[in-house]
């Protein structure tokens, strides 16, 4: 089975092992160590870590298209936000009549706007299953339509980056409008519970944190499986020599579309896990600056190494939390400098630094192993 | 007349006494007493009794106003109009605003500013300021709505007799739709005497409106084609009226006007569209050079625009009171500042990322964040005001329905001049030739002795400098703040991509047409939706024609 | 939508997706047929009313001075450039102008570029694996496994092109000549009916050139080969039939000796070359 192929890779096993250990450690320190003890992990921290993990999943999604397919999407925040809005709509409907206005069906902001019934696109979001489906389908559909048009016309490289940016910018403007029916400027917030569990309880927060960790693990394995397959090699081929790949008979635009849609769906899942943990989704997630920041996480961690994307997302967001707490003004300077330094001095990111020695070891071993029938799957 | 009583010495004394012993108030008290003394001196210098015969008549005229009967007040107003007293206008307008008042002592004063409890007042006869008075010591000379209308016409008539042309024009403007039977007579005479054609035209229009209101069919001929809203109001009333003949004539006149208005509205939309387009062209044309010609993605381009705008602001701070001169000096200064910043970016970042466009994009985005935050920290996160000089404010009135704001016109002209300049540089100078050579075949150009690095720097400086020029122009149209550039970067890229990369003409056409499209969409879609529609349109357009409106052809362009 | 149906309809086999056993219809003679093809870039006619016929199993060399339109002609045949006018047929059934690059490639036309283009980040083995004739749709590619037979075939080609020892090294580290060979190897993996080979021996040593000549002549008969080459010695060593292009159209056609003695050719081509050598 192609999906199980990553489990025979050492790097994937290490990644999954580290992730699992981290999840268990945080859980243990949160539950077993008493409050007030220096080693106790507070519910706030668990929540924060959960948020980081959802960002990490988003970074993996971006790395899949940028690192392996060479498509620099400056609009992945849009897919993240769409997944987030789908989840937000479900959470909104869960509030029921406990809103400020106490309307049994309409969310507060609709009552405030004097709407008398739910718009059609809000129907069905009271069902968790439907909402989860939309978490995948909404970003997936957008990516399908957009990608279909873009790749068919062979819009690639910088052009594609710029129009993905325009896409998320246009969506941001649209979602700012009250008439869109997504809460306008304020977005969706004041959530109460998810699947019947109160969002304010520590146990739910821990649950969401663990769920995000599991989603990250699954997303990682999925991406690894794609990357390690022959299709993954077609992706790399497309990235490096698109025309040549076409002349070999591959439908490059379909490969691009397939991977782009998968990546958009992953981003949507990340958004859906992010929203209940931060308690709000608003149009600022569509802002071009956020999308471009995601790319920085990947660049810092190391392009075309999925674990690098995870490392980058965690590093940058941890730094952001620390910086904005201590010197809020300095954060944008630091972020800007990071963009410049990483691209100029660290083109292969942190993973490139880490991987340098490992690669040399590996190559030596590989050269020794090179016999005509050496197993390809494991080393690809 | 009695001595002028000072309304507030007692109050001051009382409050001073009340806070006696409070050390902080000592200075206030001293100042109050000083003012008191000065005021007292001023009062003594002014004798309240009429000094001249003219003043005596004036007092009589004003006295006539202070009666209870509104009919008599009306006559008194007529008398003032006929008096030819040069202060008549001030009295009438003060009366209209309720600022003509009488003190307890019977003295007529004009209240200068009726906010708060103590109002500064001036003598109605001499115009001398009399300090502040408590509102309780003053009596307003009341008027009703009928008198208010009469006053407005009266003031208009007074103004029409004035020697000041601007006053006459403004007055004629105000009279439109306000003419009644009493005014009609004097106005017809005035038209004969009037020397200014514009005033005459206005008065004739005002009279025609009046005649239409009286049911005169011939008046419609005069109103037909007039774009003034008052004429339209009068015509619509007539069209809805009982007189069938009049109504149908009015309707057909309204139809004609509507046609004309449509044209004018289209012209206005076009003007606003071209204006917005010129802004887009200015913002994008520098990008067309750095991105289009050099292939460098500079995400900090918007911040270079911002630097240009801030340079204008800084020049105005350096030359207080001379906003025009500062603006003119800001043109070369803005160019220089942005060009230098551009060189710093090229040398500091971009040269290390040659041939890696996506990395260049990310790195320059980092630069843009740093520049924005720098401005926030060093200057202020808030918007700065840039003054529009005299010669750029106001508007050019084409007709009653169409007036073109001057600042937009100047920016439009500026954009065209910048464009023409760039075309000249690229087509006619050695630099332009070298730039084109380096873009087309770097290795070959180098082997022919062109210093490619130098060309890179100069080209980038040129593109950046033009961004600075855009900033100078933008400072006249929008707020100057740290986010200024961010708002234009996506639009600029859209313009360049839409026009066809590497083609300056394409940028011009794309910028102007996007501006017009945006303005055409705005009335029925709203500003935000119009912008979204334009973005979606470009996204779709690029997919249909990935190389823009004016693509470059050939094997080299296939990449 | 086309894409969705092709995903849903996995059992259906599109005729253009069946590799190697290309359905090309050559019963009526030529495998490639160009008629009155014209293309211009900004007014410059790169190809001007070009007529060219390649028979099944033929080895044809195309020569011509720089700018004669050789590469543009390849671009047109492989679908990279659309001509302004003319017809291009593969066999008597397939109109190449109605297809895009992957369709044309799947039909059995393989191309080696003038500048060797291999996938530098992938290993030599993986380069060959990707080139191999196979079902190249998305899901089959995603789930593809390497069968023993496929591995043997790749190993065989690796031996042929002499890169067996470098099989797991990234292609980016290969020398220019090795990249040329790898690209020829990729062509072999594709098992095309028609090979378009653009300057195969540029940057090769005498020895390598000989091997290349051997390889290409060996292919002819089973497959049709069109070689564009500057190196006259090489052309002479392999050519049976030579076409001379000049200013976008055919100047002369025939055996190497016939062509070389054609006064027109001597004037525009050999003459030009002689001048070049002098200069």
Strand and helix map with partners:
The complex is a heterotrimer of chains A (380), B (559) and C (279).
Chain A: H1 10-31, H2 43-68, H3 76-95, H4 108-112, H5 128-152, H6 157-176, E1 188-189, E2 193-194, E3 197-198, H7 202-228, H8 230-240, H9 242-247, H10 252-278, E4 280-281, H11 288-301, H12 306-326, H13 328-345, H14 349-369
Antiparallel strand pairs in A: 1-4, 2-3
Helix pairs in contact in A: 1-7, 2-7, 2-10, 2-11, 2-12, 3-5, 3-10, 5-10, 7-8, 7-10, 11-12, 11-14, 12-13, 12-14
Chain B: H1 9-18, H2 26-45, H3 53-65, H4 70-83, H5 88-97, E1 100-103, E2 108-111, E3 118-123, E4 129-134, E5 138-140, H6 145-160, H7 165-175, H8 181-193, H9 197-213, H10 218-223, H11 229-239, H12 244-293, H13 301-318, H14 323-348, H15 357-378, E6 395-399, E7 402-405, H16 406-428, H17 430-440, H18 442-447, H19 452-474, H20 486-499, H21 504-525, H22 527-544, H23 555-558
Antiparallel strand pairs in B: 1-2, 1-5, 2-3, 3-4, 6-7
Helix pairs in contact in B: 3-4, 4-6, 5-6, 6-7, 7-9, 8-9, 9-11, 11-12, 12-16, 12-19, 12-20, 12-21, 13-14, 13-19, 14-19, 16-17, 16-19, 17-19, 20-21, 20-22, 21-22
Chain C: H1 2-8, E1 30-41, E2 44-55, E3 59-63, H2 70-77, E4 85-90, E5 94-95, H3 101-107, E6 109-112, H4 124-131, H5 138-143, H6 148-160, H7 176-190, E7 194-198, H8 206-219, E8 224-228, H9 232-238, E9 241-246, E10 249-254, H10 256-261, H11 263-278
Parallel strand pairs in C: 3-8, 3-9, 6-7, 7-8
Antiparallel strand pairs in C: 1-2, 1-4, 4-5, 9-10
Helix pairs in contact in C: 4-7, 6-7
Structure description:
Chain C: Residues 32-272 form the ABC transporter domain. Chain A has 380 residues and is mainly alpha-helical. Chain A has 14 helices and 4 strands. In chain A, the strands form 2 sheets. Chain A has a two-stranded antiparallel ribbon with strand order 1-4. In chain A, β2 and β3 (197-198) form a beta hairpin. In chain A, α2 (43-68) runs antiparallel to α10 (252-278) and α5 runs antiparallel to α10 (252-278). Residues 369-380 of chain A have low confidence and may be disordered. By secondary structure, chain B is mostly helical. Helices cover 68% and strands 6% of the residues of chain B. Chain B is built from 23 helices and 7 strands. In chain B, the strands form 2 sheets. A 5-stranded antiparallel sheet of chain B has the order 4-3-2-1-5. Residues 1-26, 33-48 and 554-559 of chain B have low confidence and may be disordered. Chain C has 279 residues and is of the alpha/beta class. Chain C has a single domain, classed as P-loop containing nucleotide triphosphate hydrolases (Rossmann fold). Chain C has helices at 2-8, 70-77, 101-107, 124-131, 138-143, 148-160, 176-190, 206-219, 232-238, 256-261, 263-278, and strands at residues 30-41, 44-55, 59-63, 85-90, 94-95, 109-112, 194-198, 224-228, 241-246, 249-254. Chains A and B meet through α5, α6, α11 and α13 of A and α15, α20 and α22 of B.
């Amino acid at each position: 089975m192609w999906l199980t192929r990553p489990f025979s890779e050492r790097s994937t096993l290490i990644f999954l092992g580290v992730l699992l250990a981290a999840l268990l450690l945080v859980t243990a320190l949160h539950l077993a160590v008493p409050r007030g003890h220096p080693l106790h992990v507070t519910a706030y921290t668990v929540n924060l870590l959960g948020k980081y993990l959802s960002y990490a999943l988003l970074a993996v999604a971006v790395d899949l298209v940028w690192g392996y397919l060479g498509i620099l999407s400056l609009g992945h925040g849009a897919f993240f936000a769409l997944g987030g809005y789908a989840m937000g709509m479900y959470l909104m409907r869960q509030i029921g009549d406990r809103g400020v206005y106490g309307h049994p069906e309409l969310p507060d902001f609709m009552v405030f706007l004097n709407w008398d019934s739910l718009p059609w696109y809000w129907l069905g979001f009271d069902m968790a299953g439907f909402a989860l489906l939309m978490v995948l389908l909404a970003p997936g559909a957008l990516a399908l339509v957009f990608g279909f048009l873009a790749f068919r016309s062979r819009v690639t490289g910088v052009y594609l980056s710029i129009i993905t940016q325009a896409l998320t910018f246009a969506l941001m403007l649209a979602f700012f409008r009250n008439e869109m029916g997504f809460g306008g400027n304020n977005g969706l917030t004041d959530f109460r519970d998810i699947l019947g569990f109160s969002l304010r309880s520590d146990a739910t927060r821990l649950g969401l944190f663990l769920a995000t960790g599991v989603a990250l693990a699954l997303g990682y394995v999925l991406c690894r499986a794609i990357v390690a397959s022959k299709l993954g090699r077609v992706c790399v081929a497309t990235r490096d020599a698109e025309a040549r790949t076409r002349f070999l008979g591959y439908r490059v635009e379909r490969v691009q579309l397939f991977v782009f849609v998968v990546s958009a769906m992953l981003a949507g899942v990340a958004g859906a896990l992010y929203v209940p943990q931060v308690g709000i989704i608003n149009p600022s997630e569509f802002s071009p600056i956020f999308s471009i920041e995601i790319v920085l996480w990947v660049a810092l961690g190391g392009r075309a190494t999925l674990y690098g994307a995870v490392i980058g997302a965690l590093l940058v967001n941890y730094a952001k939390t620390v910086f904005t707490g201590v010197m809020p003004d300095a954060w944008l300077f630091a972020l800007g400098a990071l963009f410049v330094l990483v691209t100029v001095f660290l083109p292969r990111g942190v993973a490139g630094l880490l991987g340098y020695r490992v690669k040399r070891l590996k190559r030596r071993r590989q050269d020794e192993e090179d016999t005509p029938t050496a197993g390809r799957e494991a080393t690809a | 007349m009695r001595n002028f009583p000072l309304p507030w010495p007692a109050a001051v004394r009382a409050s001073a006494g009340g806070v006696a012993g409070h050390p902080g108030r000592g200075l206030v008290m001293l100042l109050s007493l000083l003012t008191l003394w000065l005021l007292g001196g001023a009062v003594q210098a002014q004798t309240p009794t009429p000094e001249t015969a003219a003043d005596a008549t004036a007092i009589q005229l004003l006295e006539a106003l202070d009666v209870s009967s509104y009919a008599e007040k009306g006559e008194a107003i007529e008398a003032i109009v006929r008096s030819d007293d040069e202060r008549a206008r001030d009295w009438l307008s003060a009366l209209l605003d309720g600022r003509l008042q009488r003190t307890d002592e019977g003295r007529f004063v004009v209240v200068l500013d009726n906010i708060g409890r103590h109002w500064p007042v001036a003598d109605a006869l001499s115009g001398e300021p009399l300090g502040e008075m408590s509102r309780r010591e003053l009596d307003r000379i009341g008027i009703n709505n009928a008198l208010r209308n009469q006053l407005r016409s009266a003031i208009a008539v007074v103004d029409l007799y004035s020697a000041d042309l601007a006053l006459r024009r403004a007055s004629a403007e105000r009279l439109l739709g306000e003419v009644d039977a009493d005014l009609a007579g004097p106005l017809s005479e005035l038209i004969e005497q009037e020397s200014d054609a514009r005033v005459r035209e206005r008065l004739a229009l005002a009279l025609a409106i009046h005649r239409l209101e009286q049911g005169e069919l011939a008046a419609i001929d005069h109103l037909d084609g007039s774009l003034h809203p008052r004429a339209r109001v009068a015509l619509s009333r007539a069209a809805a009226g009982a007189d069938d003949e009049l109504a149908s004539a009015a309707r057909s006149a309204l139809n004609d006007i509507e046609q004309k208005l449509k044209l004018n509205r289209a012209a206005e939309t076009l003007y606003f569209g071209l204006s917005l387009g010129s802004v887009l062209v200015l913002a994008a044309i520098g990008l067309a050079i750095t991105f289009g010609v050099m292939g460098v993605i500079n995400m900090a381009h918007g911040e270079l625009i911002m630097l240009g705008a801030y340079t204008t602001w800084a020049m105005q701070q350096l030359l207080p009171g001379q906003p025009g001169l500062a603006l003119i000096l800001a043109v070369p200064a803005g160019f220089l500042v942005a060009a230098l910043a551009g060189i710093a970016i090229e040398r500091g970042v971009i040269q290390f990322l040659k041939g890696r466009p996506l990395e260049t994009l990310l790195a320059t985005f980092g630069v843009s964040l740093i520049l924005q935050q720098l401005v926030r920290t060093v200057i202020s996160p808030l918007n700065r005001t840039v003054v529009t000089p005299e010669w750029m404010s106001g508007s050019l009135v084409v007709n009653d329905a169409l007036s073109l704001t001057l600042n937009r016109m100047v920016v439009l002209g500026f954009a065209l001049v910048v464009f023409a300049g760039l075309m000249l540089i690229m087509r006619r100078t050695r630099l332009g030739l070298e730039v084109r050579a380096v873009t087309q075949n770097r290795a070959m150009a180098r082997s022919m002795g062109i210093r490619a690095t130098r060309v890179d720097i100069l080209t980038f400086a040129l593109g950046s400098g033009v961004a600075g020029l855009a900033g100078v122009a933008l400072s006249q149209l929008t707020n100057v703040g740290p986010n200024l550039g961010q708002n234009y970067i996506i639009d600029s890229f859209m313009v360049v991509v839409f026009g066809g990369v590497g083609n300056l003409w394409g940028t011009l056409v794309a910028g102007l047409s996007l501006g017009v499209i945006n303005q055409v969409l705005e009335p029925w879609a709203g500003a935000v939706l119009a912008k979204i529609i334009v973005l979606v349109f470009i996204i779709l357009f690029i997919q249909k024609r990935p190389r823009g409106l004016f693509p470059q052809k050939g094997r080299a362009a296939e990449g | 939508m086309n894409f969705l149906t092709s995903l849903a309809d996995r059992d259906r086999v599109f005729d253009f997706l069946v590799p190697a056993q290309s359905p090309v219809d050559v019963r009526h003679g030529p495998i490639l047929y160009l008629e009155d093809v014209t293309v211009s870039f900004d007014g410059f006619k790169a190809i001007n009313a070009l007529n060219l016929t390649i028979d099944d199993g033929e080895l044809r060399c195309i020569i011509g001075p720089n700018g004669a339109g050789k590469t543009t002609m390849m671009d047109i045949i492989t679908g990279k450039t659309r001509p302004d006018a003319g017809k291009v047929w593969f066999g008597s059934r397939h109109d190449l102008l109605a297809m895009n690059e992957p369709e044309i490639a799947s039909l059995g036309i393989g191309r080696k570029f003038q500048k060797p283009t291999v996938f530098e980040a992938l290993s030599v083995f993986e380069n060959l694996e990707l080139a191999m004739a196979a079902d190249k749709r998305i899901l089959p590619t995603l789930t593809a496994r390497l069968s023993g037979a496929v591995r043997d075939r790749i190993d065989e080609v690796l031996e042929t092109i002499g890169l067996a020892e470098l099989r797991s090294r990234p292609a980016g580290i290969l020398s220019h000549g090795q990249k040329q060979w790898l690209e020829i190897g990729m062509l072999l993996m594709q098992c095309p009916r028609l090979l378009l080979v653009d300057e195969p021996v540029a940057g090769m040593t005498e020895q390598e050139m000989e091997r290349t000549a051997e390889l290409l002549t060996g292919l002819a008969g089973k497959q049709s080969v069109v070689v564009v080459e500057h190196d006259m010695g090489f052309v002479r060593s392999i050519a049976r039939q030579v076409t001379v292009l000049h200013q976008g159209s055919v100047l002369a056609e025939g055996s190497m000796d016939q062509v070389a003695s054609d006064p027109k050719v001597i004037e525009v081509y050999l003459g030009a070359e002689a001048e070049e050598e002098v200069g």
